[in-house]
Every structure is written in structure tokens, then in C-alpha cells.
Amino acid sequence: MTVVIPPTSRASEEFTTEQKREVIMTYAQIPYGGKKKYLAKIGITYKVLNRWNKQFIAGDIDTGLTPRKNVRMDSSDIHEIRRLKDLTKSLEQRVAELEGALEEKDKQLSIKDEQNAAHARAVDSLGKAIAIMQKYTDK
Question: What is the CB neighbour count within 10 angstroms for residue 47?
Fold first, then answer.
């Protein structure tokens, strides 16, 4: 007698944490009737998605631990999370732009400092030259 062990779902190993989050967020936004097709397209079952969703809601998707108790979350929460992720992304881009502008201003300031130092040396040299000329013209 042979025993055949059915293959287990390896979906948890094939998807990164960020990909799992994206699958959950995308699934929540798909209208009724297209969700089963979406799951078939990406190759996971509803059971796997449900486990990921529980982990996501409980904040344990990074660790892969599934909570024992169900935590409530509805589609408005998913939309709010999506909105906040988009806002975070745009703010990170803005911070990068401002950091680039700040670096440019720092370069300009260092150039101005070098120019000011050169001008100060020139003024000092001219002052010494004038002092020497006055010393010899007074005699």
C-alpha cells in the first residue's frame, strides 16, 4: 500500500512580505466577481489569502505568525491603509527632492565661502601693499 501525500501550498515561501501586502491590498479593491479570477491568476488559494489577511491585520505578516483570534478589518480600513501608503510614498519623494536641493545649497555655500576667503586674502594683500607704498612715499 502506497501513501500519497498531497503537495502543500508553498505560496508563503514564494512571495515576499511586501508582495503579500500588495496582494491583500489589491484583492480588497477588486470588485465582486473578479476576486476568484485574481487569486487563480496569481496562483494562491483563498485559504492562503485569508491566512495572510489575518497576519496583515494583526501586524504579523513580517513574522509569518497567524493570530489565534480574528481581528476585524473592513474595506474602508484597507482603503485607508492604501491612502496612507500613497501619502507616505509621495512624502518620501518630497523629502528626497528637498534633500537634493539642500545638498545643492550646501555646495553653493561652500563655493561662496571659498570665494569670500579668496577675497579676504586679496584685501589683506592689497592692504599690505598700500602700507608698504605709503612707507616708501613718506620718506
Answer: 10
